[in-house]
Amino acid sequence: MAGTTPQKITTFLMFEGKAEEAMTFYLSLFDDAEVVDITRYGADGPGTEGTVQHATFSLAGQRYMCIDSALKHDFTFTPAMSLFVQCDDEAEIDRLYAALAEEGSELMPLGSYGFSARFGWVNDRFGVSWQLNLPA
Predict the structure, then answer these.
(1) Which residues form the PhnB-like domain (predicted)?
(2) What is the pTM of this model?
(3) Span 13-59, pLDDT tens digits
(4) The domain that contains 18 carries what CATH number?
(5) Residues 60 and 88 in one domain
């Protein structure tokens, strides 16, 4: 992104040992996706050696950050905060919904709810919430 203005606000995802697995999965879903930077915990910790101390990745031109927290927390992701994807066609929304729902949970099955051609809402296997929309 040399020569462009850096993204001012970035979605930050905190995992507990599954950051790289989640990031790799998300990268597999989008054509325009890449790991921008990744740093792993070393033998000195404080996190488990080899897990993600900090990573930045890009999906469809949007940057995200993720970490594996070295501490256990009493909270996790909530559907009150979700990633909203505008899909280009039926094939894309079907593919993304199937992949994200696998081992996850369906909040709203793919369907027509009156506000778009098709819509679906899922929590993926990592607990991250995704709204998938195919505009009318």
Answers:
(1) 7-132
(2) 0.91
(3) 999 999 999 999 999 999 999 999 999 999 998 999 999 999 999 99
(4) 3.30.720.100
(5) no
Alpha carbon distance 80, 121 (integer Å)? 12
| Nearest partner of 103 among 35, 25, 19, 34, judged by Cα | 25
For residue range 51-94, what is the model confidence (pLDDT) as tens digits? 999 999 999 999 999 999 999 999 999 999 999 999 999 999 99
Backbone dihedral angles phi then psi of residue 16, each to the nearest 5 degrees? -125, 70
Give a yes or no: residue 2 inside a domain: no
Structure tokens at 18: 């599954």
The phi and psi torsions of 5 (rounded to 5 degrees) equal -75, 130
* Domains held by the chain: number: 2
